[in-house]
Description:
Elements: H1 3-19, H2 41-48, H3 52-59, H4 68-77, H5 82-91, H6 108-116, E1 122-125, E2 131-134, H7 136-142, H8 155-161, H9 163-168, H10 172-187, H11 194-206, H12 208-214, E3 227-231, E4 235-245, E5 253-259, H13 265-276
Antiparallel strand pairs: 1-2, 1-5, 3-4, 4-5
Helix pairs in contact: 2-4, 4-5, 11-12
Amino acid sequence: MDDQQRRTELADFLRTRRSRLSPTQVGLPQGSRRRVPGLRREEVAELANIGVTWYTWLEQARPVNVSPQTIEQIAQALRLDQYEREHLFLLAGQSPPLEPPSTTLVTAPMQQVLDSLGENPAYIVEPCWNLLAWNQAASLVFGDFDTKPIQERNLMWLVYTDPAMRRLLVDWEAFARCLLVQFRADYGQRVGTREWMELVAALQRVSPEFRQWWSSHDVTRPMDWRKELDHPIVGRLSLDSVTMQLHGTANWRLVVYTPAPDTPTAAKLHSYLLRKSIAGPTGTIAGFPAFKSS
Length: 294
């Protein structure tokens, strides 16, 4: 939307959030002679510790500059939830501040979705690319994640340090480079975060390729490309992937792999996984210790 439309949306949003709050909800006296429901503009300004005139201009859709700190103060004054707060920042032309790492557990419905994908390998990762949950097809195709120490169940760590993963990927360098530039884009939003800094430092210590390519500072957003695998049991597999954001989580992503059309991959997976009799959920992991592998 253009700037004027965005300011109009911001003004309307502020008015609707203000109108739904009563003085008693925010610790103010009810008073009398209220011609409209909700808080007055001057009450919101007082709660947010900003000027009444300045706040009024926001509700009048005037072109004023808003700092992230001020938007946060308004969000707290209006008792906005996580999604309303993010919406407010975007309407104000600001990037929402990153939320702290989620302590949300992988839920049973999430695991059921993974398991329902059957012969399609799938897993859930959080922003630092730690594996949170997966289906059995993923373990049988990419390796048994359950056998890895918890702090090593990380996609970047596995791709760059696990010899079995290097053998599995037909063009390991292309895969690893593509993964790294996406990882770098995510890292840029979390520079200084302890977990990220420790993971990057550990990868630089143990992987010459990561150390060299990391210094190039190439970045891109997630993309879908065909993965060619040389599986030790069933041979060549061609997989396409799609990545989806999971609603209601702190930027968790669901990654699903499907057999490439016009290849024998689907038949190979069906035969292999049928022999393994995949059924039932695998373990789920929530919460990772600081990355200290060496």
